Amino acid sequence: MKMKTFARGIVSVVSVVPRERKPVKFIKQMPLATRQRSDREAIWGDFCAVGDDLRNARKRYDETESPLR
């Protein structure tokens, strides 16, 4: 066993700081979308999606028969 390897092993056990990781290979970076939404468009789209989800949930809730009603 080399002294350098032994020292790294001891330090990784004793130290609270994690070891440096080697860069990950074989992962392709995905290209960014050609048209980015502005913050205003993104927030409005999310707001509309949440509204649609709430509307659908309310509709499903109203359709179910509840013994507590």
Would you mind describing this structure in some detail?
- The protein is an all-alpha fold and 69 residues long.
- The protein contains two helices and no strands.
- The radius of gyration is 27 Å and the shape is elongated.
- The mean pLDDT is 78.
The helix/strand class is mainly alpha
Spatial gap, N to C terminus: 74 Å
- The overall pLDDT average reads 78
Write down the secondary-structure element order: HH
pLDDT < 50 stretches:
none
Classify the helix fraction into a percent range: 40-55%
Pick out its properties.
about 70 residues, mainly alpha, 2 helices, about 0% strand
Structure summary:
This protein is mainly α.
How are the SSEs placed, and which strands pair?
Blueprint (H helix, E strand, L loop, with lengths): L2 H12 L24 H25 L6
